[in-house]
Design goal:
With about 180 residues, the chain is an all-alpha fold. It folds into 2 domains: about 70 residues, no CATH class; about 70 residues, no CATH class. Helix 2 packs across helix 3 and helix 4 runs parallel beside helix 6. The longest helix is centred in the first third of the chain and has 28 residues. The N and C termini lie far apart (about 90 Å).
Length: about 180
Amino acid sequence: MYEKLIRQQGNIGWRQLFNGRLSLEWTRLQDDHLFLQKAQSKTRSGVLWTTNIISTLWKQFDIIWKIRNDVIHGHDVSTRNQIKREKAKNQVRRIYIQRDNFLPRDRDFLFEDIEDHLQMPTTTLLNWYATYQPLFKDSLKKAKKHALDRVKAITSYFVPLESKKKKKKKKAKNPMNNGDS
């Protein structure tokens, strides 16, 4: 009974339901159902049912989208400011976490204690981050390169072993070698 619906909606894509793209089979099946129930009328049809389903889905998605945005961006000035402050503090924390990896001269731009830095006003934190983040990014790159300066590859500390074939050839060429070992 529903095989055609499943096949058609599968061809369209089940996720397309959320975009309002329903197989026409939904409408036909609803019309059949209403006919069997003797409930067809101008206000009850497969087309109206399908339209109502799409409308209901979209209304629910709109509600969910607004809730999501309130959580991520805040629902009023106060919560927006709190979220903005947390983002700024997290940006500063990400820099401090890498403190030991910066060049020593660049560490001077950091407070001794991160908590003292995090007490600054939000706009100050954001401006500090915007100003110094490129410097710290470059500092990491330079510190990594500097750490490898004057460092030999581990293979340079070992002398390659001669293969057995090369040893035999050397023995054979040696005129002092009389076959006794």
